[in-house]
């Protein structure tokens, strides 16, 4: 459930409102700060001046990145569907009681990251933690999860920039710099009339950020598929990665829901 | 309790003999292999061709190094005194029974790494795991630990090369390549007559391996101090790191027992 710095997307707003949790403070500069990296472990994805911060803990579920430290620290990375699954399990491990509010927030994160358990990144541990957290919140997690994803996929009030940058990260593929984002909707047809506007915004972002390409996944949660929009170059690597022919700046892929597991690894392989 | 590839030092021999454990196979080439990195997470300290291996797990207690992976993996690093402490705790976490042999080997590793709990790297968790493992082995861990360290510090049968390379690792200090080793003895006086021979061997190793310097810690376990031997350059960084004047290629430091916590960090700071 990542959000661009300083913005709260419709899904996060739904979760915070539902569990009466205040909007957390956003940190954008790491200089001189003590930092725990959660849900990322790459310099390019961290706050500014991360090299002038003291990283004293890392909890994540992504590939191992380029963070190094001068001293031994606690670093726990586990290939589960959500970092919140790891954090929720750590509460038990260290015998810390979980408040209803924190249970709600962590359950939401797991349901969001695993797309209601449909993502190929989902593991039995994710399901176990949701069952545990749902009991604490008193919610029916299926009903709640659908309501949350519906709030997330309400794009009517979103600008094209909010759609592109809502869940967006920088990557470096063997020296080729790129931005890869994702928007999940319950029904892809709501995005069709806005595709031109989204592509134009992607091209603006690409130029402004000096990137080779920008790729945005338009993910249909119910149909379990993604329309992969691509602007920039090299198109041949994009086509190689997703084994298709680009048409109108897009390749449609059935079964592709996860950026981490189904989009980044094939891109890395194509650029090797 | 690291050993140079293919060699079994007197301490390891003592442990394996004591608990009737066969000498484990040594792997020197990672090409095409599936690898779990244990007790290290830096390319320079791993087997040859580690970049052509599949790293699918890391369990360590050192600073975070330069290992990266194409996919999410289990990576657990924790600032405790011994990686064996983490492994021993994982047995319980995953409800796997510990055999008497494995308990003996892990207890030995923790006692060795923490120098019988005297090292500043030692944590309450290390002590807890030793207490648990000692119960399984039926040993008095204090008595056993002293016997093990005595076997380790029997250097009479060791060549100078075995003393230098017995527990030896490569490091890169902001581009300056170095080898840093350690030998622990119960009484430093046994090493005094061999100091010249050790320094000559260090210089040979330095030249053969194309390093800027080689530093060997001669650690007196009972007096809790180390004589830091240094050959090569830059001497000024060595003196800056250990706040002393080098005499006869050495600086004597009271209270210094841990390479990881008390030797590598000040060197890194001096080279910054």
UniProtKB/TrEMBL annotation, chains A, B:
Single annotated GO MF: metal ion binding
Cellular component aspect of the GO annotation: cytoplasm
The keyword Chaperone is annotated on this UniProt entry: no
Catalytic reactions of this protein: diphosphate + H2O = 2 phosphate + H(+)
Pfam families: DHH, DHHA2
Chain ranges of the DHHA2 domain: 145-271
Name this protein carries in UniProt: inorganic diphosphatase
Organism: Methanothrix harundinacea (strain 6Ac)
Lineage: Archaea, Methanobacteriati, Methanobacteriota, Stenosarchaea group, Methanomicrobia
């Amino acid at each position: 459930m990542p959000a661009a710095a300083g913005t709260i997307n419709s899904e996060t707003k739904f979760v915070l409102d539902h569990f009466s949790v205040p909007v957390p403070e956003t940190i954008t500069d790491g200089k001189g700060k003590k930092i725990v990296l959660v849900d990322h472990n790459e310099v390019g994805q961290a706050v500014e001046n991360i090299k002038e911060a003291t990283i004293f803990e890392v909890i994540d579920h992504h590939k191992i990145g380029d963070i190094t430290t001068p001293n031994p620290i606690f670093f726990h990375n586990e290939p589960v569907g959500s970092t919140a699954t790891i954090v929720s399990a750590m509460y038990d491990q260290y015998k810390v009681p979980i408040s209803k509010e924190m249970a709600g927030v962590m359950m939401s994160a797991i349901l969001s990251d695993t797309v209601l358990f449909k993502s190929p990144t989902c593991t039995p541990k994710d399901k176990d933690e949701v069952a545990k957290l749902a009991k604490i919140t008193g919610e029916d997690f299926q009903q709640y999860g659908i309501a949350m994803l519906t709030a997330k996929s309400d794009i009517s009030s979103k600008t094209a920039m909010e759609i592109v940058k809502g869940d967006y990260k920088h990557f470096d593929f063997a020296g080729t710099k790129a931005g890869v984002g994702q928007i999940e909707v319950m029904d892809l047809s709501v995005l069709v009339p806005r595709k031109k506007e989204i592509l134009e915004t992607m091209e603006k972002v690409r130029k402004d950020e000096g990137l080779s390409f920008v790729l945005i996944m338009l993910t249909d949660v119910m149909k379990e598929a993604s329309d992969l929009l691509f602007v920039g170059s090299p198109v041949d690597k994009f086509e190689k990665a997703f084994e298709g022919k680009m048409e109108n700046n897009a390749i449609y892929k059935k079964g592709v829901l996860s950026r981490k597991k189904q989009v980044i690894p094939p891109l890395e392989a194509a650029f090797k």
